[in-house]
Each structure stands twice: as C-alpha cells, then as structure tokens.
C-alpha cells in the first residue's frame, strides 16, 4: 500500500489530486492535512485520515509535518500551498525519501524568483516582458510583482500617471518587486513534470476566465497548444536541470507571439484540466498499476464557486464572452470540486477563500 500525504487540502487542487489518485490507483491511501482549524470538521471526503497542523512559525510547521510523515510511514508527500514549498525544500533532506521526486531548493528558486528567471530567459533569447529599474523609469502600462511570491499574490498594474504617483509615494515598499512591461494578450499555460530537466509529460491550456478578471488566477480553461511552449520549457528546464512539477505562464499576442510571464515550479491551480483529459502527471512518481480508464470526451474545467464571481466581474466590464463560451459548452464543462460530490471539501474551499480575502 502506497501512502500519500497531500495538503493544504482546503485548496481545490489538493482535493482534485486526492480524488484523482484514489480513482486512478488501486493500491493508494491518501492522507491529508491543513493549517486551518475548521478543516478538522470541514475537509474533503477523499482522505483516509486528516491532520490539523497548528503552528506559530515555519519551524513548528516543518516539525509537525515531519512527525506526520514518519509516524504514518508516508511514501510520498505532495505539498500544495505555494507559501510553504520553498521552506519545505530547504529542509528536503529531513523528510527522508518522500520528496525524492523533487529537485533542490536552489533549482526551485531559480525558476520561482522572477528576477532570476528574467536573467535566465534573456540569456536564452526567450521573449519575456522588458524589465524596468524603477517605478519612475517604467513605461506605462506596466506591472509590478513580488520577486518571490506565487501566482497573483501582491501583483499590481499601473495604467496611468495618477496610479504611478500613488505608488511612488510608497516607493520603499516595492524594493523587492520586479517591474515589467504589461503585455496585451490571452493567458495560456504549459504544465509539465520533468526529471533532470527532461520533460516527461506535458499539457497546454488557455484561460477562458480568471478571477479577479484582470490578472487573476484561472477559473475556466480549455486545451491549447502553441509550438513555442515546448521549445521555451525545454530550454529553461534543460538549463536548470529541474526535477519536479512546473507551470509556464504565457501571454499569446494578437500576432501569435508567445511571451513568457513566469514559471511556477510547483503543482498548479489548473492541474485538473490535464488530469480530466487523460494526462497523468504522477505516472513517473507513483509506480502502482493504474486502473484502466480512458476518457474520450475533451473537457473544459472550472473552479466552483469562484467562476460565479468571475462572471459577475466580466458582466461589470461588459464582457460576456466567457459566459457565452461556458453556456455553449455546458455538457463539456467539468467542475474541479462540486458540492454534491464532496460537500465538506467544497465548503472548505469557500472557508479558505473567505479567510484569504479577509487577510488581503
């Protein structure tokens, strides 16, 4: 019996993975954990045993994780929360073999840190948005991102001089940011699992809706491929020799140019899109025999209930295209986590969403 620990399980992608592994492998047991107290009572049904991690600092967090892993003889640990993955990899050697499918913290940070990634991309002649040295010198419109944060955390856009002056007044607050040109285009992603820089499995998707509706996370997606996706990913991963998951985020412009925005060297939020369309990103990690399961229909996937908030945002902007696409494909849409299939898991997602937005 292969034991797998997944967390934090109040995120939709963690629940998606737990469900997928249970349904795909006959000899797998899934354990879960979370740092939200209410998940002791509200957590996904796709868990043999759930743990609440109470901690006051990152050292407590790591210590408690190691206790769970060693006391329960965990074979594989899948950390999901982007805020903790870097710290977990710093202590990788302390976790035994359960993180052997991931590379080093140094390699992780080369991809995760936006300034380092920018230099790597430029050295490989990869198309990446121009970088500016300061808020004052940046050409409007531009975007400011924390160098070491994931996804859309802390990102802000400057579209006019009034907005620039407001941020310049607090210039010292943005010394750990990277400032780059804003790129017009549709968001798309190329998701991979690689070993020593060689891509073993990959899947491309395009964003159909995001929340927040400008620069937010993907909440509705479909299959998509551009030949430069693989070229860029192979160049960067070949240089870093990364072992692990990675999602390359791009913008595709009106003239079909692909622009690299960032790389997230971790399990990504839209992983369900590939999983639902027969791309098993875990096949090179978990060697248990898979159940025979062939899905012929091509699905689009979405986050519930976040997609409803996204639709409201698009309506306010007068953009009804995402809603039309959703309704047109109503029989080909598949939610990541549903209330009917996993009510407590679905409620835990809302709980995390409310706490996150209250803190922000």
Explain this structure to me?
Helices cover 32% and strands 25% of the residues. It is α/β, with parallel strands linked by helices and 360 residues long. It has 3 domains: 2-100, Rossmann fold; 130-181, Dna Ligase, domain 1 (2-Layer Sandwich), CATH 3.30.1490; 186-359, ATP-grasp fold, B domain (D-amino Acid Aminotransferase, Chain A, domain 1), CATH 3.30.470.20. The strands form 3 sheets. The chain has a 7-stranded mixed β-sheet. A hairpin with a 5-residue loop joins strand 12 and strand 13. The model has no long low-confidence stretch (mean pLDDT 93).
Short description:
The protein is 32% helix and 25% strand.
Query: How would a crystallographer describe the biggest sheet?
Result: 7 strands, mixed
Which architecture of the largest domain does the CATH hierarchy give at level 2? Answer: 2-Layer Sandwich
- Mean pLDDT figure: 93
CATH topology of the largest domain: D-amino Acid Aminotransferase, Chain A, domain 1
State the strand order across the main sheet: 13-12-9-10-11-14-15
> What is the β-strand count?
15
Looking at this structure, what is the CATH superfamily of the largest domain?
ATP-grasp fold, B domain
Alpha carbon gyration radius: 20 Å
Strand content: 15-25%
Separation, N- and C-terminal Cα atoms? 41 Å
Q: What global shape is seen?
A: globular
Helical stretch tally: 11
Provide the number of structural domains: 3
Q: Class of the largest domain, according to the CATH hierarchy?
A: Alpha Beta
Binned, the helix content reads 25-40%
Order of SSEs = EHEEHEHHHEEEHEEEEHEEHEHHEH
The stretches of 5 or more residues where confidence is low (pLDDT under 50) are none
* Computed structural class: alpha/beta
């Amino acid at each position: 019996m292969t034991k797998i620990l997944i967390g934090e399980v109040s995120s939709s992608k963690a629940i998606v993975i737990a469900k997928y592994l249970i349904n795909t492998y006959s000899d797998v047991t899934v354990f879960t954990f979370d740092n939200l107290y209410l998940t002791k009572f509200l957590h996904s049904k796709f868990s043999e045993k759930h743990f609440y991690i109470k901690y006051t600092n990152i050292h407590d967090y790591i210590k408690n994780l190691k206790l769970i892993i060693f006391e329960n003889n965990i074979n594989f640990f899948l950390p999901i929360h982007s805020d903790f993955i870097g710290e977990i990899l710093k202590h990788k050697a302390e976790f035994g073999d359960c993180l052997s499918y991931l590379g080093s913290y140094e390699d992780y940070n080369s991809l995760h840190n936006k300034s380092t990634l920018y230099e790597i991309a430029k050295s490989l002649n990869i198309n990446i948005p121009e970088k500016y040295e300061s808020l004052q010198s940046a050409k409007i419109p531009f975007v400011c991102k924390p160098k070491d944060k994931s996804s859309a955390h802390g990102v802000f856009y400057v579209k006019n001089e009034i907005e620039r002056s407001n941020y310049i007044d607090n210039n010292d607050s943005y010394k750990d940011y990277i400032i780059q040109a804003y790129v017009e285009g549709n968001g798309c992603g190329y998701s991979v699992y690689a070993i020593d820089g060689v891509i073993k499995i990959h899947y491309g998707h395009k964003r159909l809706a995001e929340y927040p509706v400008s620069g937010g996370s993907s909440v509705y997606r479909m299959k998509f491929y551009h030949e430069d996706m693989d070229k860029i990913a192979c160049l960067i991963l070949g240089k870093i020799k990364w072992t692990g998951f990675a999602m390359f985020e791009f913008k595709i412009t009106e003239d079909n140019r692909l622009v690299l925005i960032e790389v997230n060297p971790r399990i990504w939020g839209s992983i369900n899109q590939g999983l639902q369309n027969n791309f098993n990103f875990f096949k090179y990690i978990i060697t248990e025999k898979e159940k025979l399961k062939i899905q012929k229909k091509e699905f689009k996937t979405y986050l519930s209930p976040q997609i409803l908030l996204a639709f409201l945002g698009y309506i306010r902007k007068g953009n009804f295209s995402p809603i039309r696409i959703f309704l047109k494909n109503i029989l080909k849409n598949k939610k990541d986590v549903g209330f009917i299939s996993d009510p407590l898991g679905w409620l835990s997602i809302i709980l995390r969403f409310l706490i996150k937005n209250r803190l922000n």
